[in-house]
What we know:
Layout: H1 13-28, H2 33-44, E1 49-50, H3 51-58, H4 62-74, E2 78-83, E3 86-93, H5 97-129, H6 135-159, H7 163-172
Antiparallel strand pairs: 1-3, 2-3
Helix pairs in contact: 1-2, 2-4, 3-4, 5-6
Amino acid sequence: xxxxxxxxxxxxxxxxxxxxxxxxxxxxxxxxxxxxxxxALLYLSDRPLNAEEISDTLRIARSNTSNSLKELLGxxxxxxxxxxxxRRDHYEAEVDLMQMLTRIAQxxxxxxxxxxxxxxxxxxxxxxxxxxISDTARQRIVAMQDFVVxxxxxxxxxxxxxxxxxxxxxxxxxxxxxxxxxxxx
Length: 185
């Protein structure tokens, strides 16, 4: 449900567009639109905001704001900060883009990759013991497990790289191929 109050803050057009677009992108990534919009608003804010200000600015229900803030806190994309003279909780976003990327990647890994690795390990063990499974199915399960484990290993390696060096690696893009042996991949 949407609440529109008289306390709504008028955002500059560019900020409105960013918040709306971030909300749409969040939906594409499987994140609730309100969660993504609140994250965008806090990311662009030059000061910590309280839940009431967030609700009024985005014209969303206070309960939706509260639930969205809890989710963002769980992802460690925002934090509570004290504001002198105000007993309410105020929030600010992580603004270091590499930290933000790292936290999102870690959260997605925990929610998506880790369970896939565990499930594929069980499936592979079962496929090796099950005489009724075809060689094709067995090979494809093993190939899927190898692939997901390789992605997981790559992730672990990348998270141990210092942020500045990781950004250099990202910027290299396909130029890194020059360092690999030529021939079949």
